[in-house]
Write a structure and sequence with these properties.
With about 220 residues, this protein is an alpha+beta fold. The chain has helices spanning about 5-15, 25-30, 85-95, 115-125, 125-150, 155-165, 175-180, 185-195, 210-220, and strands at about 35-40, 45, 55-65, 75-80, 100-115, 170, 200-205, 205-210. Helix 4 crosses helix 5 and helix 7 packs across helix 8. The model has no long low-confidence stretch (mean pLDDT about 90).
Protein backbone atom coordinates (compact mmCIF):
# COMPACT_ATOMS: atom_id res chain seq x y z
CA UNK A 1 0.00 0.00 0.00
CA UNK A 2 1.40 3.43 -0.91
CA UNK A 3 1.29 6.52 1.29
CA UNK A 4 -0.74 9.54 0.25
CA UNK A 5 2.40 11.62 -0.50
CA UNK A 6 3.47 9.10 -3.15
CA UNK A 7 -0.04 9.02 -4.57
CA UNK A 8 0.11 12.82 -4.94
CA UNK A 9 3.49 12.54 -6.67
CA UNK A 10 2.00 10.12 -9.20
CA UNK A 11 -0.84 12.57 -9.88
CA UNK A 12 1.68 15.38 -10.38
CA UNK A 13 4.11 13.51 -12.63
CA UNK A 14 1.62 11.38 -14.57
CA UNK A 15 -1.25 13.76 -15.47
CA UNK A 16 -2.41 11.35 -18.20
CA UNK A 17 -3.54 9.00 -15.42
CA UNK A 18 -5.47 11.60 -13.44
CA UNK A 19 -8.90 10.48 -14.66
CA UNK A 20 -8.11 6.90 -13.68
CA UNK A 21 -7.64 8.00 -10.08
CA UNK A 22 -11.13 9.51 -10.05
CA UNK A 23 -12.58 6.01 -10.53
CA UNK A 24 -12.92 2.97 -8.29
CA UNK A 25 -9.57 1.77 -9.63
CA UNK A 26 -7.89 4.36 -7.42
CA UNK A 27 -8.53 2.18 -4.36
CA UNK A 28 -6.98 -0.87 -6.05
CA UNK A 29 -3.97 1.20 -7.08
CA UNK A 30 -3.33 2.57 -3.59
CA UNK A 31 -3.73 -0.84 -1.96
CA UNK A 32 -1.68 -2.94 -4.39
CA UNK A 33 1.03 -0.62 -5.72
CA UNK A 34 4.48 -0.68 -4.10
CA UNK A 35 7.10 1.97 -3.37
CA UNK A 36 10.46 1.03 -4.89
CA UNK A 37 13.71 2.61 -3.69
CA UNK A 38 17.16 1.78 -5.06
CA UNK A 39 20.67 3.22 -5.14
CA UNK A 40 22.86 4.05 -8.16
CA UNK A 41 24.34 0.89 -9.61
CA UNK A 42 21.61 -1.40 -8.27
CA UNK A 43 20.41 -3.95 -10.83
CA UNK A 44 16.64 -3.64 -11.19
CA UNK A 45 16.28 -6.42 -13.72
CA UNK A 46 18.48 -8.55 -15.95
CA UNK A 47 17.92 -9.98 -19.40
CA UNK A 48 15.67 -13.09 -19.30
CA UNK A 49 14.27 -12.17 -15.85
CA UNK A 50 10.48 -12.57 -15.55
CA UNK A 51 8.61 -9.26 -15.35
CA UNK A 52 6.81 -8.79 -12.04
CA UNK A 53 6.15 -5.04 -11.95
CA UNK A 54 5.59 -2.00 -14.15
CA UNK A 55 7.64 0.93 -12.73
CA UNK A 56 6.47 4.55 -12.71
CA UNK A 57 9.52 6.69 -11.90
CA UNK A 58 9.04 9.52 -9.38
CA UNK A 59 12.69 10.54 -9.00
CA UNK A 60 16.06 9.30 -10.22
CA UNK A 61 16.50 7.29 -13.40
CA UNK A 62 16.88 3.79 -14.82
CA UNK A 63 19.33 2.96 -17.61
CA UNK A 64 18.04 0.20 -19.89
CA UNK A 65 20.80 -1.52 -21.84
CA UNK A 66 21.64 -4.59 -23.90
CA UNK A 67 24.81 -6.63 -23.42
CA UNK A 68 26.66 -7.72 -26.54
CA UNK A 69 28.51 -11.08 -26.81
CA UNK A 70 31.86 -9.24 -26.62
CA UNK A 71 30.94 -7.81 -23.20
CA UNK A 72 30.13 -4.28 -24.38
CA UNK A 73 26.82 -2.73 -23.40
CA UNK A 74 24.60 -0.57 -25.60
CA UNK A 75 22.27 1.88 -23.86
CA UNK A 76 18.77 1.67 -25.33
CA UNK A 77 17.16 4.46 -23.32
CA UNK A 78 16.73 5.96 -19.85
CA UNK A 79 13.54 6.05 -17.79
CA UNK A 80 13.29 9.43 -16.05
CA UNK A 81 10.77 11.01 -13.63
CA UNK A 82 7.28 11.00 -15.09
CA UNK A 83 8.03 8.02 -17.34
CA UNK A 84 7.28 4.30 -17.43
CA UNK A 85 9.46 1.52 -18.84
CA UNK A 86 8.41 0.38 -22.31
CA UNK A 87 10.24 -2.96 -22.03
CA UNK A 88 8.30 -3.75 -18.87
CA UNK A 89 5.13 -2.85 -20.76
CA UNK A 90 5.89 -4.94 -23.84
CA UNK A 91 7.03 -7.93 -21.78
CA UNK A 92 3.93 -7.81 -19.58
CA UNK A 93 1.59 -7.55 -22.56
CA UNK A 94 3.45 -10.24 -24.48
CA UNK A 95 3.92 -12.40 -21.36
CA UNK A 96 7.64 -12.70 -22.09
CA UNK A 97 10.79 -12.18 -20.03
CA UNK A 98 12.90 -9.04 -20.16
CA UNK A 99 14.86 -8.79 -23.46
CA UNK A 100 17.39 -6.37 -21.88
CA UNK A 101 18.70 -5.23 -18.50
CA UNK A 102 17.95 -2.24 -16.27
CA UNK A 103 20.24 -0.55 -13.76
CA UNK A 104 19.69 2.44 -11.49
CA UNK A 105 21.52 5.50 -12.84
CA UNK A 106 20.50 8.06 -10.19
CA UNK A 107 19.00 7.30 -6.78
CA UNK A 108 15.57 5.93 -7.55
CA UNK A 109 12.10 6.28 -6.10
CA UNK A 110 9.38 4.64 -8.18
CA UNK A 111 5.92 3.19 -7.86
CA UNK A 112 5.82 -0.48 -8.79
CA UNK A 113 2.56 -1.66 -10.34
CA UNK A 114 2.37 -5.46 -9.80
CA UNK A 115 1.59 -7.41 -12.96
CA UNK A 116 -1.90 -8.50 -11.82
CA UNK A 117 -2.81 -4.87 -11.13
CA UNK A 118 -1.25 -3.85 -14.46
CA UNK A 119 -3.50 -6.29 -16.34
CA UNK A 120 -6.53 -5.04 -14.38
CA UNK A 121 -5.76 -1.41 -15.26
CA UNK A 122 -5.19 -2.21 -18.94
CA UNK A 123 -8.50 -4.09 -19.03
CA UNK A 124 -10.66 -1.59 -17.15
CA UNK A 125 -9.08 1.86 -17.61
CA UNK A 126 -9.18 3.60 -20.98
CA UNK A 127 -6.79 6.25 -19.62
CA UNK A 128 -4.23 3.65 -18.58
CA UNK A 129 -4.45 1.85 -21.95
CA UNK A 130 -3.93 5.13 -23.78
CA UNK A 131 -0.94 5.89 -21.56
CA UNK A 132 0.59 2.48 -22.37
CA UNK A 133 0.18 3.11 -26.12
CA UNK A 134 1.67 6.58 -25.68
CA UNK A 135 4.78 5.01 -24.11
CA UNK A 136 5.13 2.70 -27.11
CA UNK A 137 4.80 5.58 -29.55
CA UNK A 138 7.34 7.74 -27.71
CA UNK A 139 9.94 4.98 -27.41
CA UNK A 140 9.47 3.81 -30.99
CA UNK A 141 10.20 7.33 -32.22
CA UNK A 142 13.23 7.49 -29.93
CA UNK A 143 14.59 4.17 -31.21
CA UNK A 144 14.08 5.24 -34.83
CA UNK A 145 16.04 8.43 -34.13
CA UNK A 146 18.79 6.39 -32.47
CA UNK A 147 18.97 4.03 -35.47
CA UNK A 148 19.23 7.03 -37.78
CA UNK A 149 22.03 8.53 -35.68
CA UNK A 150 24.00 5.29 -35.56
CA UNK A 151 23.51 4.65 -39.28
CA UNK A 152 24.04 8.10 -40.73
CA UNK A 153 25.93 10.25 -38.24
CA UNK A 154 29.62 9.99 -37.47
CA UNK A 155 30.63 9.27 -33.89
CA UNK A 156 32.18 12.72 -33.39
CA UNK A 157 28.86 14.34 -34.33
CA UNK A 158 26.96 12.05 -31.95
CA UNK A 159 29.43 12.85 -29.18
CA UNK A 160 28.96 16.59 -29.74
CA UNK A 161 25.18 16.20 -29.48
CA UNK A 162 25.63 14.11 -26.33
CA UNK A 163 27.82 16.78 -24.72
CA UNK A 164 25.40 19.55 -25.70
CA UNK A 165 22.60 17.71 -23.90
CA UNK A 166 24.75 17.58 -20.74
CA UNK A 167 26.14 21.15 -20.90
CA UNK A 168 27.57 23.05 -19.13
CA UNK A 169 29.03 20.24 -17.02
CA UNK A 170 29.11 16.47 -17.25
CA UNK A 171 30.15 14.28 -14.33
CA UNK A 172 30.97 10.95 -15.88
CA UNK A 173 33.72 8.57 -16.93
CA UNK A 174 34.93 8.02 -20.47
CA UNK A 175 33.75 4.42 -20.17
CA UNK A 176 30.20 5.46 -19.31
CA UNK A 177 30.08 7.88 -22.25
CA UNK A 178 31.32 5.08 -24.50
CA UNK A 179 28.62 2.75 -23.16
CA UNK A 180 25.93 5.38 -23.74
CA UNK A 181 27.07 5.87 -27.35
CA UNK A 182 27.77 2.21 -28.11
CA UNK A 183 31.48 2.82 -28.67
CA UNK A 184 34.77 1.99 -26.94
CA UNK A 185 36.50 3.95 -24.17
CA UNK A 186 39.65 4.37 -26.27
CA UNK A 187 37.82 6.02 -29.18
CA UNK A 188 35.80 8.31 -26.90
CA UNK A 189 38.93 9.35 -24.99
CA UNK A 190 40.68 10.18 -28.25
CA UNK A 191 37.77 12.32 -29.45
CA UNK A 192 37.47 14.11 -26.10
CA UNK A 193 41.18 14.94 -26.11
CA UNK A 194 40.77 16.36 -29.62
CA UNK A 195 37.84 18.48 -28.45
CA UNK A 196 39.92 19.74 -25.53
CA UNK A 197 42.79 20.64 -27.86
CA UNK A 198 40.28 22.66 -29.92
CA UNK A 199 39.17 24.49 -26.73
CA UNK A 200 35.66 23.04 -26.88
CA UNK A 201 35.82 21.34 -23.47
CA UNK A 202 38.02 21.00 -20.40
CA UNK A 203 38.76 17.48 -19.16
CA UNK A 204 39.04 16.80 -15.44
CA UNK A 205 38.86 13.60 -13.42
CA UNK A 206 35.36 12.17 -14.03
CA UNK A 207 34.21 15.68 -14.99
CA UNK A 208 33.97 17.60 -18.26
CA UNK A 209 33.42 21.35 -18.54
CA UNK A 210 31.57 22.08 -21.77
CA UNK A 211 31.75 25.31 -23.79
CA UNK A 212 28.24 25.11 -25.18
CA UNK A 213 28.42 28.05 -27.62
CA UNK A 214 31.57 26.70 -29.27
CA UNK A 215 30.11 23.21 -29.55
CA UNK A 216 26.88 24.60 -31.00
CA UNK A 217 28.83 26.40 -33.71
CA UNK A 218 30.68 23.21 -34.55
CA UNK A 219 27.46 21.17 -34.49
CA UNK A 220 25.79 23.59 -36.92
CA UNK A 221 28.64 23.06 -39.39
CA UNK A 222 28.01 19.31 -39.69
Amino acid sequence: MIEEKYHQEVLKLFPDLKEMFNSSLSVSFKQQALVLKAKPGDQLFAETDPVEIFPLVLSGSIKVYKMEPNGKSVVLYEVNPGEGCVLSTSSLLGKTNYPASGKVENELVAIGVPKDLFYQLVDKSTMFREYVFKIFSHRLNHLLEMIEEVSFQKLDHRLIKYLLEKAPELKSTHQKIADDLGSSREIISRLLKRFEKDNLIVLERERILIYKDKLLNLNNNF
